Amino acid sequence: MADGTAAPAKLPLVDRFGRQVTYLRLSVTDRCDLRCAYCMSEKMTFLPKAELLSLEELEQVAASFVKRGVRKIRITGGEPLVRKDILHLFERLGLLLGNGLDELTLTTNGTLLDKFAQPLAAAGVRRVNISLDSLDPVRFREITRLGDLEQVLRGIDAARDAGLKVKLNTVVLKHQNLNDIPDMIAWAHAEGMDLTLIEVMPLGETGEDRIDQYEPLSTVRHMLDAHWTLTDEPRTDHQGGPSRYMRVTETGGRVGFIAPLTNNFCAGCNRVRVTCTGRIYMCLGQDDHVDLRAALRTSDDPGAALDAALDRALRAKPEKHEFEIRTRGEAPALPRHMSMTGG
Ligand code: SAM
Ligand code: SF4
C-alpha cells in the first residue's frame, strides 16, 4: 500500500458449517473426444464458444480463488486437453505454484497425454488422474463409444516417462466392467499405480438407464475381500475429499472408493467446482450455483465482483449432496452432465 503497510489479507473461504474451501476443480471445456456411456449421450451437443470463459478469464478466476486460500487446483472438463491452447493456461497457473498454490493437477481421459505429458510436467504438474474403465479393447470401446485403449495406454506411459505420478479412476458399471475390477487393480498395482473406484452418479441424460449401470461399491468391496486382505488407510487432515483408501496387503498398492450413494462424505468437504461457463457449484450433487461470468464481464471492478461472488457462493454451500438413483425410466435427479461441472 502507498503508506508502506501490507495490504490486508483476503478472508479465507469458510462456509456456514465451518468448512474451509482449499480445493478448486476448474472445468475448462464441456467438449470431449470420447462419449463415455455413463457421462454423456452419444449425440451430445456442446456449448457455443462464446458461452465459455476465455483462458484469461479462467486464469483470473483461479487467481482469485488462490488469493482466498485455495491451495490446490484440478483442471478438468469435458476433456481438458482438447481445449485449444490449454497449455498456456497450465503455464500461467504454474506461476502460482509456491505463491499460494501448492498443487496444480488435472483429470484426463489420457487420449492426448502422449503429446501433452512433457509440457504439463514442465508447467509444474506433478500428478495426474487418468480415467480407465477397462483393459479390454472391445469393452473399452463399448464404454467410451469412441476410445482406443492402446492410445490411452500410450498416454499413461508418456505421463510416467515425464515423471508424473499417475492415479487411475475407474467407474464401476454393473453390466460392463464389474467382474474385471480385481484384474484391473492387480494390473495397476503391479505397474505402481493406485486405482480409485467410482460409483455411477445420476448426472445428466446419457441415453442409458442409470439403474442398468449402477452397482454399489459395497459389492466390489465383497469381491475384493474374497481375493485380498484390505486394510483402511488413515485419513489425513488435509484430505477432505470423497475417497476412502484401502491398502491391499498382497499387492502393496492402494484402492480408493468414491461412493457418494452408499457413503455420505460431505462433512469434511473442502472443495468447490467452477464450470467452463463460469458457474460455481458448491456441491456436485446439488444445483445451487453462483455466476462468476456475469461478475467478470459486467463489472467495472472484476476483482471485487469476483470476491463478492465467492462470498455469496460460500454462504450457499449446502451441508450435503442429495444424490439418489431413481426408479427405471425416471429423469436424472440433476439434469447437468458431469462433463459440465467436471469430475
Ligand atoms: N474427461 C476427463 C476424464 O474422463 O477423466 C475429465 C472429466 S470426467 C467428467 C471426470 C471423471 O468423472 C472421470 O473419472 C469420469 O469417469 C467421471 N464421471 C463422469 N460421469 C460420471 C458419472 N455420471 N458418475 C460417476 N463418475 C462420472
Ligand atoms: Fe469425456 Fe471424461 Fe465424460 Fe468420458 S468421462 S465422456 S472422457 S468427459
Question: Any idea what the radius of gyration is?
Answer: 20 Å
CATH superfamily: Aldolase class I
Q: What's the CATH C level? A: Alpha Beta
Sheet of most strands: 12 strands, mixed
Q: What general outline do the C-alpha atoms trace?
A: globular
In round numbers, the mean pLDDT is 87
Strands ordered across the widest β-sheet: 7-8-9-6-5-4-3-2-1-10-11-12
Question: Could you please say which CATH topology applies here?
Answer: TIM Barrel
Structural category: alpha/beta
Describe the structure.
This protein has 10 helices and 12 strands. The longest helix is centred in the last third of the chain and has 15 residues, at 302-316. It has helices at 55-67, 86-94, 113-122, 137-144, 149-161, 181-190, 217-227, 292-298, 302-316, 338-341; strands at 23-27, 72-76, 103-108, 127-131, 165-172, 194-199, 230-232, 244-248, 254-258, 271-274, 279-281, 289-291. It has a 12-stranded mixed beta sheet. The chain has one domain (23-341): TIM Barrel, CATH 3.20.20.70. Strand 8 and strand 9 form a beta hairpin. Helix 1 (55-67) packs parallel to helix 2, helix 1 (55-67) packs across helix 9 (302-316) and helix 3 packs parallel to helix 5. It is α/β, with parallel strands linked by helices. Mean pLDDT is 87; it is low at 1-8. S-adenosylmethionine (SAM) binds at residues 32, 38-39, 76-77, 79, 107-109, 131, 169, 171, 198, 200-201, 203, 338-339, 342-343.
